[in-house]
Amino acid sequence: MDLRLTEKVAVITGSSKGIGKETATVLTEEGAKVVLVARHEDGLKQAVADIKEKTGKTLDYVVADVTSDSDAKKVIDYVKDQYGQLDILINNAGSAFAENFDQVGLDDWQNDLNLKLFGWLRMIHAALPELKKQGGAILNLAAVAGKTPPAQSSPTSVSRAAGLALTKTLSKDLAQYNIRVNAVCIGLIRSGQIEKRWQQDAPDKTWEEYASDPKFNIPLGRIGDTREAADVIAFLVSDAASYVSGTAVNIDGGSGAAL
Protein backbone atom coordinates (compact mmCIF):
# COMPACT_ATOMS: atom_id res chain seq x y z
CA MET A 1 0.00 0.00 0.00
CA ASP A 2 1.22 3.48 -0.87
CA LEU A 3 0.88 5.54 2.32
CA ARG A 4 1.29 8.76 0.32
CA LEU A 5 3.85 10.21 2.70
CA THR A 6 6.31 11.48 0.10
CA GLU A 7 7.49 15.02 0.92
CA LYS A 8 5.40 15.17 4.09
CA VAL A 9 7.23 16.82 6.99
CA ALA A 10 7.00 15.06 10.33
CA VAL A 11 8.19 15.87 13.85
CA ILE A 12 8.62 12.98 16.29
CA THR A 13 9.39 13.65 19.95
CA GLY A 14 11.31 11.12 22.01
CA SER A 15 12.76 9.73 18.79
CA SER A 16 16.36 8.93 19.66
CA LYS A 17 15.45 5.33 20.46
CA GLY A 18 12.68 2.76 20.69
CA ILE A 19 9.34 3.23 18.97
CA GLY A 20 10.07 6.86 18.11
CA LYS A 21 13.28 5.98 16.30
CA GLU A 22 11.67 3.06 14.47
CA THR A 23 8.75 5.25 13.42
CA ALA A 24 11.22 7.79 12.03
CA THR A 25 12.80 4.97 10.04
CA VAL A 26 9.47 3.84 8.57
CA LEU A 27 8.36 7.37 7.66
CA THR A 28 11.71 8.01 6.01
CA GLU A 29 11.40 4.80 4.01
CA GLU A 30 7.99 6.03 2.87
CA GLY A 31 9.43 9.30 1.59
CA ALA A 32 8.68 11.67 4.46
CA LYS A 33 11.08 14.30 5.78
CA VAL A 34 11.50 13.58 9.47
CA VAL A 35 12.81 15.81 12.24
CA LEU A 36 13.89 13.90 15.34
CA VAL A 37 13.44 15.49 18.77
CA ALA A 38 14.93 14.38 22.09
CA ARG A 39 16.81 15.81 25.07
CA HIS A 40 20.25 14.33 24.43
CA GLU A 41 22.25 15.17 21.32
CA ASP A 42 24.44 12.08 21.49
CA GLY A 43 21.38 9.84 21.24
CA LEU A 44 19.99 11.88 18.37
CA LYS A 45 23.25 11.70 16.44
CA GLN A 46 23.34 7.93 16.88
CA ALA A 47 19.73 7.62 15.74
CA VAL A 48 20.47 9.70 12.63
CA ALA A 49 23.47 7.49 11.84
CA ASP A 50 21.47 4.29 12.32
CA ILE A 51 18.59 5.48 10.14
CA LYS A 52 20.96 6.66 7.43
CA GLU A 53 22.57 3.21 7.40
CA LYS A 54 19.14 1.62 6.86
CA THR A 55 17.61 4.11 4.44
CA GLY A 56 20.49 6.00 2.87
CA LYS A 57 18.90 9.29 3.96
CA THR A 58 20.11 11.84 6.49
CA LEU A 59 17.53 13.09 8.97
CA ASP A 60 17.39 16.40 10.77
CA TYR A 61 17.13 16.76 14.53
CA VAL A 62 16.49 19.32 17.27
CA VAL A 63 17.66 18.95 20.86
CA ALA A 64 14.63 19.86 22.98
CA ASP A 65 12.75 19.01 26.15
CA VAL A 66 8.95 18.82 25.85
CA THR A 67 8.57 20.00 29.45
CA SER A 68 9.77 23.42 28.26
CA ASP A 69 7.44 25.86 26.51
CA SER A 70 10.36 27.59 24.78
CA ASP A 71 11.80 24.27 23.58
CA ALA A 72 8.48 23.24 22.04
CA LYS A 73 8.34 26.54 20.19
CA LYS A 74 12.00 26.16 19.16
CA VAL A 75 11.24 22.83 17.46
CA ILE A 76 8.36 24.18 15.40
CA ASP A 77 10.17 27.41 14.53
CA TYR A 78 13.09 25.36 13.23
CA VAL A 79 10.82 23.16 11.11
CA LYS A 80 9.00 26.19 9.72
CA ASP A 81 12.26 27.92 8.82
CA GLN A 82 13.90 24.84 7.28
CA TYR A 83 10.95 23.18 5.53
CA GLY A 84 8.20 25.77 5.26
CA GLN A 85 5.53 23.33 6.39
CA LEU A 86 4.53 20.78 9.00
CA ASP A 87 2.21 17.90 8.18
CA ILE A 88 2.64 15.38 11.01
CA LEU A 89 3.25 15.64 14.75
CA ILE A 90 3.93 12.46 16.70
CA ASN A 91 4.01 12.88 20.47
CA ASN A 92 6.13 9.99 21.68
CA ALA A 93 8.23 11.49 24.49
CA GLY A 94 7.47 10.01 27.88
CA SER A 95 8.42 7.47 30.50
CA ALA A 96 6.51 5.06 32.70
CA PHE A 97 6.43 5.88 36.39
CA ALA A 98 4.10 3.45 38.15
CA GLU A 99 3.72 2.90 41.87
CA ASN A 100 1.21 2.15 44.57
CA PHE A 101 -0.82 5.29 45.20
CA ASP A 102 0.47 5.54 48.78
CA GLN A 103 4.03 5.82 47.48
CA VAL A 104 3.35 8.64 44.99
CA GLY A 105 3.92 12.22 46.14
CA LEU A 106 2.37 15.34 44.67
CA ASP A 107 5.65 16.22 42.96
CA ASP A 108 5.56 12.81 41.23
CA TRP A 109 2.07 13.54 39.94
CA GLN A 110 3.08 16.97 38.68
CA ASN A 111 6.22 15.69 36.99
CA ASP A 112 4.38 12.87 35.23
CA LEU A 113 1.56 15.08 34.00
CA ASN A 114 4.05 17.75 32.94
CA LEU A 115 5.99 15.29 30.79
CA LYS A 116 3.09 13.39 29.24
CA LEU A 117 -0.14 15.37 29.12
CA PHE A 118 1.39 18.83 29.12
CA GLY A 119 4.23 17.69 26.89
CA TRP A 120 1.62 16.79 24.30
CA LEU A 121 -0.18 20.09 24.86
CA ARG A 122 2.99 22.17 24.46
CA MET A 123 3.89 20.52 21.18
CA ILE A 124 0.34 20.71 19.84
CA HIS A 125 -0.03 24.39 20.76
CA ALA A 126 3.26 25.18 19.06
CA ALA A 127 2.48 23.10 15.95
CA LEU A 128 -1.13 24.14 15.43
CA PRO A 129 -0.56 27.32 13.39
CA GLU A 130 1.50 25.33 10.87
CA LEU A 131 -0.85 22.34 10.79
CA LYS A 132 -3.84 24.61 10.19
CA LYS A 133 -2.34 25.88 6.92
CA GLN A 134 -2.87 22.64 5.00
CA GLY A 135 -4.27 20.12 7.47
CA GLY A 136 -2.35 17.18 8.82
CA ALA A 137 -2.17 14.53 11.49
CA ILE A 138 -1.39 14.39 15.20
CA LEU A 139 -0.59 11.03 16.77
CA ASN A 140 -0.26 10.59 20.54
CA LEU A 141 1.47 7.56 22.04
CA ALA A 142 -0.39 6.32 25.09
CA ALA A 143 -0.53 2.94 26.82
CA VAL A 144 -3.16 0.25 27.32
CA ALA A 145 -3.13 1.21 31.01
CA GLY A 146 -4.77 4.46 29.96
CA LYS A 147 -7.91 2.47 29.09
CA THR A 148 -7.81 -0.16 31.82
CA PRO A 149 -5.51 0.93 34.67
CA PRO A 150 -4.14 -1.93 36.75
CA ALA A 151 -3.19 -1.68 40.41
CA GLN A 152 0.01 0.16 41.25
CA SER A 153 -0.07 2.17 38.02
CA SER A 154 -0.20 5.70 39.41
CA PRO A 155 0.50 8.23 38.09
CA THR A 156 1.30 6.99 34.58
CA SER A 157 -2.09 5.40 33.84
CA VAL A 158 -3.90 8.57 34.92
CA SER A 159 -1.69 10.74 32.68
CA ARG A 160 -2.35 8.38 29.77
CA ALA A 161 -6.10 8.37 30.40
CA ALA A 162 -6.11 12.17 30.36
CA GLY A 163 -4.16 12.06 27.11
CA LEU A 164 -6.75 9.80 25.52
CA ALA A 165 -9.52 12.22 26.52
CA LEU A 166 -7.46 15.04 25.01
CA THR A 167 -7.06 13.04 21.80
CA LYS A 168 -10.82 12.59 21.44
CA THR A 169 -11.57 16.24 22.23
CA LEU A 170 -8.99 17.54 19.77
CA SER A 171 -10.22 15.24 17.02
CA LYS A 172 -13.54 17.08 17.18
CA ASP A 173 -12.19 20.61 17.68
CA LEU A 174 -9.55 20.39 14.95
CA ALA A 175 -11.56 18.55 12.31
CA GLN A 176 -12.63 21.89 10.84
CA TYR A 177 -9.00 22.42 9.81
CA ASN A 178 -8.69 18.92 8.33
CA ILE A 179 -6.39 17.91 11.18
CA ARG A 180 -6.82 14.31 12.26
CA VAL A 181 -5.94 13.33 15.84
CA ASN A 182 -5.44 9.73 16.91
CA ALA A 183 -3.62 7.74 19.57
CA VAL A 184 -2.06 4.33 19.92
CA CYS A 185 -2.08 2.40 23.18
CA ILE A 186 1.12 0.47 23.57
CA GLY A 187 1.34 -2.87 25.36
CA LEU A 188 4.52 -4.89 25.77
CA ILE A 189 6.89 -3.84 23.01
CA ARG A 190 10.60 -4.66 22.96
CA SER A 191 12.52 -1.76 24.46
CA GLY A 192 15.68 -1.04 26.40
CA GLN A 193 13.73 -1.33 29.65
CA ILE A 194 12.31 -4.72 28.74
CA GLU A 195 15.69 -5.95 27.56
CA LYS A 196 17.12 -5.04 30.96
CA ARG A 197 14.39 -7.12 32.59
CA TRP A 198 15.25 -9.98 30.26
CA GLN A 199 18.92 -9.85 31.27
CA GLN A 200 18.03 -9.63 34.95
CA ASP A 201 15.27 -12.27 35.02
CA ALA A 202 16.36 -14.82 32.42
CA PRO A 203 19.89 -14.26 31.08
CA ASP A 204 20.08 -17.93 30.08
CA LYS A 205 17.16 -17.58 27.65
CA THR A 206 17.25 -16.25 24.10
CA TRP A 207 15.12 -13.20 23.36
CA GLU A 208 12.60 -15.38 21.50
CA GLU A 209 12.28 -17.70 24.49
CA TYR A 210 11.88 -14.84 26.93
CA ALA A 211 9.46 -12.87 24.73
CA SER A 212 7.17 -15.88 24.34
CA ASP A 213 7.01 -16.74 28.06
CA PRO A 214 3.38 -17.49 29.02
CA LYS A 215 3.75 -15.32 32.13
CA PHE A 216 3.21 -12.24 29.96
CA ASN A 217 -0.31 -13.43 29.16
CA ILE A 218 -0.29 -12.12 25.59
CA PRO A 219 -2.84 -13.86 23.34
CA LEU A 220 -0.55 -13.64 20.29
CA GLY A 221 2.07 -15.39 22.37
CA ARG A 222 4.98 -12.93 22.36
CA ILE A 223 6.21 -9.43 23.12
CA GLY A 224 5.90 -7.14 20.13
CA ASP A 225 8.64 -5.51 18.09
CA THR A 226 9.13 -1.77 17.63
CA ARG A 227 8.64 -2.16 13.87
CA GLU A 228 5.15 -3.57 14.46
CA ALA A 229 4.23 -0.47 16.42
CA ALA A 230 5.89 1.88 13.95
CA ASP A 231 4.00 0.40 10.99
CA VAL A 232 0.65 1.09 12.65
CA ILE A 233 1.69 4.63 13.58
CA ALA A 234 2.88 5.33 10.04
CA PHE A 235 -0.47 4.21 8.65
CA LEU A 236 -2.47 6.38 11.08
CA VAL A 237 -0.55 9.56 10.21
CA SER A 238 -0.64 8.87 6.47
CA ASP A 239 -3.19 9.87 3.86
CA ALA A 240 -4.11 6.19 3.61
CA ALA A 241 -5.95 6.77 6.92
CA SER A 242 -7.55 10.02 5.80
CA TYR A 243 -10.96 9.11 7.29
CA VAL A 244 -9.62 7.90 10.65
CA SER A 245 -9.72 10.36 13.54
CA GLY A 246 -10.53 10.31 17.23
CA THR A 247 -9.57 6.70 17.80
CA ALA A 248 -7.05 4.92 20.03
CA VAL A 249 -5.63 1.74 18.54
CA ASN A 250 -4.23 -0.95 20.83
CA ILE A 251 -0.83 -2.34 19.84
CA ASP A 252 -0.63 -5.04 22.46
CA GLY A 253 -0.89 -8.50 20.91
CA GLY A 254 -4.49 -8.75 22.10
CA SER A 255 -3.70 -8.45 25.80
CA GLY A 256 -5.79 -5.37 26.50
CA ALA A 257 -9.13 -5.74 28.25
CA ALA A 258 -10.78 -2.88 26.33
CA LEU A 259 -11.35 -2.20 22.64
Automatic annotation (TrEMBL):
SUPFAM superfamilies: NAD(P)-binding Rossmann-fold domains. InterPro entries: NAD(P)-bd_dom_sf, SDR, SDR_fam. Its EC number is 1.1.1.304. Gene3D superfamilies: NAD(P)-binding Rossmann-like Domain. Keywords: Oxidoreductase. GO terms for biological process: bile acid metabolic process. GO terms for molecular function: diacetyl reductase ((S)-acetoin forming) (NAD+) activity. It catalyses: (S)-acetoin + NAD(+) = diacetyl + NADH + H(+). Catalyzes the irreversible reduction of 2,3-butanediol to (S)-acetoin in the presence of NADH. Belongs to the short-chain dehydrogenases/reductases (SDR) family. PANTHER family: 3-OXOACYL-(ACYL-CARRIER-PROTEIN) REDUCTASE (PTHR42879), NADPH-DEPENDENT REDUCTASE BACG (PTHR42879:SF6). This is Diacetyl reductase [(S)-acetoin forming]. It comes from Macrococcus hajekii.
